[in-house]
């Protein structure tokens, strides 16, 4: 049943007065939609919007709810763990769901990423990764190696050091450019997952790593897909170039797989497209199937042993809710669902549906590019999105999308049926026309 009108109005009034929503002003410039419940791939609204009481979620709650909502297996895992313990500190104590999840991630990850440090969120996982790299070189008596190299167009989170390796000009963090640590930026990789590698660009990457090697602790990039920085796809060949350059010049390599991990690009981890292993890898988002906040930073024995030889001989980090039993138990159940099912086939099916459904956007006025990779579909405009107009158009077509900058994109749950993939694509076309 719909929420009583008075209750919905009261909640939205309280929301406007007290709740500061992400990437928005306070108070908000537009009222958010009030969600009453969610099941499968549908969000049920407390009050109709644009004539719609239900919306197909084309965003998987910022790319995390890969199994959809209200899943009986994940619900059961949460209930069973709550009955045992919802939380216990990870300092000096441990527990089965955390241990088993760490061991499983180490088995699944490429190469010898054997050691797992749990964190609260993706941004914190990046902070931990960067701290690992800086502390590694300090422990080895090389404290001058404290800068980081990345390429433009990237996004690694909203916490302090993570912001320093996001795009310094086109990104949302340019406000802090004078206060953040100054890192080394390469040009953004040439676009196109299937495009032949640009040898000139590859040479420039090698030269930049070589030139700054004495001061570089690490290179950090999003492999294959640059997410919130622009939803751009690039050739896996550039990851191989970075691996070779880092090995040649004594620099660590970090892959931020928070958005790409667990199948989103068609490989379980995007690093697999390149056949290389980083020294440190960050995971998050889909790790718990969108149920609870949890992230992980994995590293090789080389990194862990290097830190342990230093002073202090410990990684100086420890979130209060690190390794939360409830989150790690649900994450284990989410991995069961993913790996026991045909996740690769489902992602391929969604990829085919998005390719067909978004193709007509190429003929729309104001569209610069249309691209699809795995369960990711993007319409890029030649102008800034009119966010209210685009959102209204998508909602009127029964779909929740969250455009940003010049992009209308979708990253739906893997369980989205074909008819809803088609609906999402149709809504994205309508949003592009309205934007």
Automatic annotation (TrEMBL):
Gene this chain is encoded by: bioA
Give the protein's recorded name.
Adenosylmethionine-8-amino-7-oxononanoate aminotransferase
**Which pathway does UniProt place it in?**
Cofactor biosynthesis; biotin biosynthesis; 7,8-diaminononanoate from 8-amino-7-oxononanoate (SAM route): step 1/1
**Cofactors:** pyridoxal 5'-phosphate
List, in alphabetical order, the Gene Ontology terms for molecular function in this entry: adenosylmethionine-8-amino-7-oxononanoate transaminase activity; pyridoxal phosphate binding
The record lists substrate as bound by 62, 155, 285, 318, 402
Q: Where in the cell is it found?
A: Cytoplasm
How far does the signal peptide extend, from start to end residue? none
Q: Which family does it belong to?
A: Belongs to the class-III pyridoxal-phosphate-dependent aminotransferase family. BioA subfamily.
Q: Which HAMAP family match?
A: BioA
The organism that produces this protein has a lineage beginning with: Bacteria, Bacillati, Actinomycetota, Actinomycetes, Kitasatosporales
Q: Quote the subunit structure annotation.
A: Homodimer.
Query: In this UniProt entry, which residues are annotated as the site Participates in the substrate recognition with KAPA and in a stacking interaction with the adenine ring of SAM?
Result: 23
